[in-house]
Amino acid sequence: MFRTRLPAFSILATLTLANSPLSAADTAPAPADLKKTVEQGYAFIKSKQGEDGSFIPKFTGPGGAALIAAALVKNGYPIDDPVVAKALAYLEKNVKDDGGVYDKGFATYPTSLAIMAFKDANKDKKYDKVIESAAKYLRKVQESGGTDDTKLEFGGAGYGGGKASRPDTSNTAFFLEALIASGADKNDKAVQSALTFLSRAQNLPSEEFNQQPFAKKVSDDDKGGFVYNPFDQDKRDSAKRTDVGGLRSEGGMTYAGLKSFLYAGVDRKDKRVEAAVKWVRANYTLEKNPGMGTAGLYYYYHTFAKAMDALGEDEFADAKGVKHPWRKELYDVLSKTQKADGSWVNTNQAFLETSPELATAFAMLSLGYCKDKK
Predict the structure, then answer these.
(1) What are phi and psi of 285, to 5 degrees?
(2) Could you give the C-alpha distances from 338 to 27, 229, 333, in angstroms and in order?
(3) CB atoms near residue 36 (< 10 Å)
(4) pLDDT in tens, 122-149
(5) What average pLDDT does this structure show over 18-38?
(6) 237 belongs to a structural domain
(7) Is residue 21, in this structure, part of any structural domain at all?
(8) Which domain holds residue 101?
(9) 17 within a domain of the structure (yes/no)
(10) Residue 157 sits in a domain of what CATH number?
(11) Per the structure, how many domains does the chain have?
């Protein structure tokens, strides 16, 4: 019996290739493939737009129109594109006297999304005043939580709509992103207050950032991740509670929290950022929304894309050291789940994603981050 020995240079070459950075062709989808997928999504969206610029079903209101406009602009469609232009006009019609951009019910989400859409379309400063007024409205939503920074609700944003509402990680993340899009810098009081709330929604006990009871009962699996509603700690019947009395970390919320920290200029060596990244490494997947299964899957994809883009790594290493070309992996998942009519839809009704218009808007926005940046 004998063994075949590889020449030293062959072994070296093999090791070098295994550890070499992937090329742009390997870390991002082929431009032609991405273009085709986006165009199919655009065709579906166009077919669902009403004459007034809104989208069917009406319950998506200004929020849906803003999400779609932002997604299309992110994918390279100009602001004078018929669908984009009509959506923006519809948003303008929904600007209220208080500066908010909403129809009825939820106000923080649509106003935040509108700011992002207007900012991307703000050619020749056309929307300067609208953005300024909308940002003032959002600040009032945050201020409705009071000025006592020892209270859990301090700095957070709820659903809005004319009265104080319980803040959560999702609303606050959208609020913070919109505030930064409006021109607020990292030292802005409202930005720092929002970070205070988000820090208290992270499963990371800290004398400095989070002394909430649930954070002190965090399991190793949940440590570093974010929860949707930290107030659930007081609800014994909440499905979000863990066996040890803590709260379960969720994928969509963790990426929302992580990208909020990065957008607001929190140092990457900050223990909150490092803990969130560590949780992401341990829970990296595009097959489900960690902690939530299929619930909010397309919402998850969009926060995943934004956070990964903010991290700036073409290949993201998981806890096992496996490097993931996340742009290509995200595109592959979205291209495989796109329907024949160009839409996306979730069979799980949570987050209203059984509406193909809403799921498609999130999917299209996610695709906008799949393009190679080199």
Answers:
(1) -165, 155
(2) 21, 31, 9
(3) 13
(4) 988 999 999 999 999 999 999 998 999 9
(5) 79
(6) yes
(7) no
(8) 27-367
(9) no
(10) 1.50.10.20
(11) 1
CA-based nearest residue to 286, from 326, 228, 255: 326
Other Cβ atoms less than 10 A from the Cβ of 3: the count is 4
- pLDDT tens digits for 113-128? 999 999 999 988 999 9
- Quick one: pLDDT band at residue 8, thresholds 50, 70, 90? very low
pLDDT of residue 285: 98
pLDDT over 60 (residue 6): no
The answer to whether residues 70 and 120 touch, using CB atoms and an 8 Å cutoff, is yes
Contacts 24+ apart (CB under 8 A), 165-169: 166/229, 166/231, 167/197, 168/201, 168/228, 168/229, 169/198, 169/201, 169/226, 169/227, 169/228, 169/229, 169/230, 169/253, 169/256, 169/257
Q: How high is the mean pLDDT of the chain?
A: 91
Question: With bands split at pLDDT 50, 70 and 90, how would you rate the model's confidence at 24?
Answer: low
At 29, which amino acid appears?
A: P
Tokens of 372: 């190679």
Task: Give the rounded percent of residues in the chain with a pLDDT score beyond 70.
Answer: 91
| SS3 category, 187 | coil
Q: Whose CA is closest to 345, among 337, 356, 335, 334?
A: 356
The position carrying tokens 């986006």 is 38
pTM of the model: 0.92
- Are 217 and 245 in contact, with CB atoms under 8 Å apart? yes
Tell me the C-alpha distance between 214 and 7, whole Å: 57
Residue 22, in any domain of the structure: no
Distance CA 304, CA 326 (A): 9
Q: Are 346 and 339 in contact (CB under 8 A)?
A: no
Q: Tell me the average pLDDT across 147-163.
A: 89
3-state SS, residue 234: helix
C-alpha torsion sign, points 364, 366, 367, 373: positive
DSSP 9: H
> Taking every pair of C-alpha atoms in the chain, what is the biggest distance, in angstroms?
87
Closest by CA position to 370, among listed 75, 81, 68, 67:
75
